Amino acid sequence: MKALSKKLTYFATGVLACVLMANQASALPNILNVFRKPKTSTENVLVTVKNEIGELTAVNQDTSYYLVVFGYEGRFNPANQSHTFAAYVQATPDGQQVWSSISWLPADFVNTRSICIFKNILGAIKDEIRGNNCEPVVGRNYSVSQTLQMAQGTRKTLGIWGPYRITREMYSRGIERVVALNNGQTKYLADDRKTRPTGEAINCMHAVGDLFDQGPGKGGFLNLGYGIWGIDGTKHVLNFLSNLGQDYVLDPIRIHQFRRIKNY
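Now predict its structure.
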């Protein structure tokens, strides 16, 4: 009888241990979620910026104009995984906002996620000497929301600059570029060193920066434009825009002060 009681005790203890282990295992994902960094959604990114614009406009008590600039890059910043884009925003004190984007990419990028460009410095030098192997393609001006959605989930690093208050003249220049891109007046080419002067095709950075004829030059290694893309490329564009003066940009643009979202 004592032996049977002892066996039942061992059995009950084993069952209890299994139940406790199962409960702990089921709780483990919840415990890990405490330490896991929450994912930043496209909606959260835009809501934050829109709220800031709303607060600034409420203080101004007048129709106001803003520039918001974005840039993203992949791990190790390969040229074909980087992008610079921007939004020109008209806001009124009653809370209305009209966003117009400059996000210039190949028309089929939403399906292919592919950009034709040299893979390394040797390719950049070869293209400089022999000519670009990539041909201009039909471009498409995507919305900010579309662009953020395409970048999300690909472990990009996203940078956001602004919102900066701008003059109506600067806003008008931005809208002129938006209309030109939407009307297909130019094509897309990532390495646009040969086609940019004629306006035949431009890349995303020059779509944002070339509002006053040609903006920032090549820069980078051996002045080939090599390495000037992604976050650094966006800073390159912003450095040019920051020198336009208060006839166009009312707020100081501090290129090294921006929001950085990793693993976007």
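The longest helix spans residues 2-35.
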